[in-house]
Amino acid sequence: MDLSKLTIASARKALDAKEFTARELTEAYLDEINKKNGELQAYLEVWSESAREEAKKADERIARGESAPLTGIPLAIKDNMLVVDRRITAASKILENYIASYDASVIKKLKEQNAVLLGRTNMDEFALGSSTENSAFGPTKNPHDISRVPGGTSGGSTAAVAANLALGALGSDTGGSLRQPAAFCGTVGFKPTYGAVSRYGLIAAASSLDQIGTVGKTVEDAQIIFDAIRGHDENDSTSLPDSAFTKTASVKKVVGVPRAFLKEGVEADMLENFEQTLKSLKAAGYSIVDVDLPALEYSLAVYYIINPAEVSTNLARFDGIRYGLSVPADTIGETYERSRGIGFGPETRRRMLVGTFVLSSGYADAYYRKARDVRELIRADFAKAFESVDAIAMPTSPTAPWKIGGKADPLSVYAADIFTVPINLAGVPAISIPSGSVERDGKKLPVGFQIIAPHRGEAGLFAIAKDVEKSAV
Amino acid sequence: MISKDDIKNLAKLARLEVAEAELERLQKELPEILSFVEMVQKASTNLKAGVPEHRNITRPDENPIESGTYTETLLKAAPAREGDRIAVKQVISRKK
């Protein structure tokens, strides 16, 4: 079998037709991981033994003719979703030796389908970053140029799929953490509507923004994994009722582009690539119209208030008492301060301090509450735009993947999230689809094209994304 | 202007030990981040007061799990235990 040509959809057919077994497929991926993971660092841990066991069970189920869409499909899991009895760390020293007490709802669903879980993938610590450089265990390399970042925070998951170290993957997206690394690695990255997938068992970063999503080589693959993990969960009070989603969409083929928002900070050839993809969509029968989203200029500022505020609140649970790293000290207060001081990396600490500031008495009105209000304007802008268009298109990233270590100051990294954070602030679904490449230092680097749909508009989003996939270079 | 003492105070509020060298760096970085995000204050937001779109959803408090079901599972993760309890340093002490 040729792993580079295999998709979840084609592997399903081959497994059911007994062209190869789940065990053989799993071995092929484990071999590939053995060869390449040392260099790429996509996985933090590979679960060879349990993967072989799961493959065996999958083969038994396939033999009974009872296969589900993901039965026997080898997948990678971002290191922030709990798998019972497995070490799960959110790429942080503070959870370096933490063994999960239960399965996340998404993991439970994958296990019910007898999917094969290959291992846990690298990420920015606590899903804070844009390059996977903030992992406490070293950066992941971009498979297209190992001197460059794979994007982040789900960079391990997207690098694994891009390098054929997994057939698909789970990731999470708080401000672009699936779409931007998907764009950088040349895979599909999909962030569902806020509430479409249960977050029970996902290690929280910023709760009003976090959403679990999927990585695949094709739109269809990303959709197959999504269909397996979606659905209401009483253990996640933010999860939406299943009845909120429609199965089919009537797409009028009208795509809006917020031209005014694309003016600044986009690399010339990245913008050119975006225009090319729009042209090919036009040729495929779409009409492209301008949309006005005036509040989007505040997105980054709003995001970098709300995200740290929620991060500082969520990470308060790590105290060295109940689980995780605990540094002995004379008083309980010092145990908190030392465990957290040693356990959290630089970017995480920075966000906790910014978050503490914007929530502190005397500043909360001018920062946190103001940001919350401006967020409503952004949400309203999207709602208004979706009255006249089916979807909105934007580049996924303003730049090509940068060199590892190439962005030293925090603000320049934050700026890379310009086109992805508005989507999380609004809670709408979006997907990044590979659309050709740009060249840097003689190497071809992938580019992502982003499609955004209204709340619960997944059906329409996938339909348009498939057209983009067909027409993109 | 954020002083070193302000950063120290923030770190104290966040229950975070911060080394001296990092304080210096943070004293440069935090004001840069804050002055960037301050642009939200330029946006005009005259939101109508009304029923907020989002509300809390709580689970009914019923069908409790039998006491002890998860005790071992959860205690296994604790750094220090005494019997069926998590052991911590004394929290309240008598004044000397």
SSE arrangement:
The complex is a heterodimer of chains A (473) and B (96).
Chain A: H1 8-16, H2 22-40, E1 43-46, H3 48-63, E2 74-78, H4 105-112, E3 116-121, H5 155-162, E4 168-173, H6 179-185, E5 188-191, E6 211-216, H7 219-229, E7 254-257, H8 268-283, E8 287-290, H9 299-314, H10 332-343, H11 346-359, H12 365-385, E9 391-395, H13 410-414, H14 421-426, E10 430-440, E11 443-452, H15 458-471
Parallel strand pairs in A: 2-3, 2-4, 7-8, 7-9
Antiparallel strand pairs in A: 1-3, 4-6, 5-6, 5-10, 9-11, 10-11
Chain B: H1 4-13, H2 20-37, H3 71-75, E1 81-82, E2 85-86
Antiparallel strand pairs in B: 1-2
If you had to describe this structure to a student in words, what would you say it looks like?
The complex is a heterodimer of chains A (473) and B (96). Chain A has 15 helices and eleven strands. The model of chain A has no long low-confidence stretch (mean pLDDT 96). Helices cover 38% and strands 14% of the residues of chain A. Chain A folds into two domains: 1-295 and 376-407 and 419-473, Amidase signature (AS) domain (Amidase signature (AS) enzymes), CATH 3.90.1300.10; 302-365, no CATH class. The two termini of chain A are 26 Å apart. Chain A is α/β, with parallel strands linked by helices. Chain A has an eleven-stranded mixed beta sheet with strand order 1-3-2-4-6-5-10-11-9-7-8, sandwiched between helices. Chain B has 96 residues and is mainly alpha-helical. Chain B has a domain at 4-41: Histone, subunit A (Orthogonal Bundle), CATH 1.10.20. Chain B is 34% helix and 4% strand. Chain B is flat. At the A-B interface, helix 9, helix 10, helix 11, helix 12 and helix 13 of A face helix 1 and helix 2 of B.
